[in-house]
């Protein structure tokens, strides 16, 4: 029986398929949205969502004391690193993407169908994070207008004279 063995093979051997899915997931974490075929987008979705779940578990680590919680966070980081093989992407996954999705119970990715590719009519799609990380914008504080007596006007720098070349 083949219960629980449903996987999209994408017409590739296992090693090639695994490398493809990992690279697509890396690109998704790095760029927050990628354009690919619909079949590849559907294949990468479970892999990416499991990584976000690792990141969310690191936000609220379990353990009796601080030492166990710290060890749990290190363990989760190592699990993600084993799949992604890039420390910068693991950092972005745990601190940006998982933090943005901390209140969502699942379904961290969105697949948007785009139509068919002109060259071979393959169905194309965008896959992106539902909770896109938006960094806080620092409010621009305008300096108060100072009175004219407080500010001394600056002199313009003098232009340097070009030295004549010796012949």
In short:
With 167 residues, this protein is of the alpha+beta class.
Q: Helix and strand layout, with pairings?
A:
Blueprint: H1 14-31, E1 33-37, H2 38-59, H3 66-84, H4 87-100, E2 109-116, E3 123-129
Antiparallel strand pairs: 1-3, 2-3
Helix pairs in contact: 1-2, 2-3, 2-4, 3-4
Helix % is 40-55%
What is the averaged pLDDT score? 88
Shape assignment: extended
Radius of gyration: 26 Å
The low-confidence runs, each spanning 5 or more residues with pLDDT under 50, are: none
Strand content: 5-15%
Total strands: the figure is: 3
Verbal overview:
It is extended and about 85 Å long. It has a three-stranded antiparallel sheet with strand order 1-3-2. The chain has helices spanning 14-31, 38-59, 66-84, 87-100; strands at 33-37, 109-116, 123-129. By secondary structure, it is of the alpha+beta class. The protein contains four helices and three strands, in the order H-E-H-H-H-E-E. Strand 2 and strand 3 (123-129) form a beta hairpin.
Give short descriptive properties of this protein:
single chain, 167 residues, alpha+beta, 3-stranded antiparallel β-sheet, 4 helices, 3 strands, extended
């Amino acid at each position: 029986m083949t219960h629980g063995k449903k996987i999209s093979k994408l017409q590739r051997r296992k090693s090639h398929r695994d490398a493809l899915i990992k690279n697509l997931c890396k690109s998704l974490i790095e760029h927050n949205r990628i354009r690919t075929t619909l079949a590849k987008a559907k294949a990468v979705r479970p892999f990416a969502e499991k990584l976000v779940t690792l990141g969310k578990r690191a936000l609220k680590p379990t353990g009796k004391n601080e030492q166990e919680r710290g060890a749990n966070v290190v363990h989760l980081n190592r699990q993600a690193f084993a799949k992604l093989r890039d420390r910068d992407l693991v950092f972005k996954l745990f601190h940006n993407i998982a933090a943005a999705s901390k209140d969502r119970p699942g379904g961290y990715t969105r697949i948007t169908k785009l139509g068919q590719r002109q060259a071979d009519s393959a169905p194309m799609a965008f896959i992106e994070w539902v909770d896109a990380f938006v960094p806080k914008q620092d409010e621009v504080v305008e300096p108060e207008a100072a009175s004219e007596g407080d500010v001394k006007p600056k002199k313009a720098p003098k232009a340097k004279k070009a030295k004549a070349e010796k012949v």
